[in-house]
């Protein structure tokens, strides 16, 4: 799994219990996954279709740094299924794992559209073309 992004937990990210607000973390994950899918599928029209069970296993507090990791589970015809793990870099604990997040490529009409991709591509390789 590649960990692409780190986030610094700030006061505005906390819940009333003074730990990282779950909704904030899910928003970070959704954006990170969407960016990953947009880059992989080379289309700006990607929507989140489905997330498997979300299990908060640990938390983070103000000042902690969390990192978001993503891996590809499978390329479908119109979809890309990813998995995600978020770790607390201070405590080394896993905060959350999501086994499958399915993103769907849509056309201008908002309906699923085949993306034509079958494997991970690295941006550096595209630049060499
Ligand atoms: C980044 C964001 O925040 S986006 C905002 C939040 N998301 C949204 O607003 C999306 C709202 N949903 C929709 O517009 C529609 O449901 C769509 C366009 C995503 C999909 O339309 P559907 O008619 O359900 O699609 P359809 O049944 O043809 O399936 C499309 C793909 O999704 C997959 N899929 C559909 N339902 C599920 C599901 N419950 N779980 C996993 N994958 C699914 C299908 O297997 C298919 O993949 P494939 O083509 O690779 O085989």
UniProtKB/TrEMBL annotation:
Residues 1-109 form the HotDog ACOT-type domain. The keyword Ribosomal protein does not apply. Pfam families: 4HBT (PF03061). Gene3D superfamilies: Hotdog Thioesterase. It comes from the Bacteria. InterPro entries: Cytosol_ACT (IPR040170), HOTDOG_ACOT (IPR033120), HotDog_dom_sf (IPR029069), Thioestr_dom (IPR006683). Keywords: Hydrolase. Belongs to the acyl coenzyme A hydrolase family. This is Hotdog domain-containing protein. It comes from Flavobacterium chungnamense.
